[in-house]
TrEMBL record:
Any coiled-coil regions, as ranges: none
GO MF term set: DNA binding; metal ion binding
Record organism: Enterococcus alcedinis
Protein name in UniProt: Metal-sensitive transcriptional regulator
A biological-process GO annotation: negative regulation of DNA-templated transcription
């Protein structure tokens, strides 16, 4: 596994642990504001992972362009639409 993928997997594992912690908080009926704060942290972490993956894919489009310029343009357009969709 390359270093970039390892970082992404670590971030995903961290988010997974946070989600388990949130489930426990809810089972223990902890304060709603604390739960929301933790949910927000998970969302931010996932957004960062998505950004990292998107950036890598876009970088690959420009560093190692497809032979077909139309295919490359299509991939860039898809990436832009995913970013804007948020």
């Amino acid at each position: 596994m390359e270093a970039g993928n390892k970082k992404i997997m670590n971030r995903l594992r961290r988010a997974e642990g946070q989600l388990r912690g949130i489930q426990k908080m809810m089972e223990e009926e902890q304060d709603c504001l604390d739960v929301i704060t933790q949910l927000s942290a998970v969302r931010s972490g996932i957004d960062r992972v998505m950004g990292i993956i998107m950036a890598e894919n876009l970088k690959n489009c420009f560093v190692d362009p497809e032979k077909d310029p139309e295919e490359q343009a299509k991939k860039v357009e898809q990436a832009i639409n995913m970013i804007i969709k948020k």
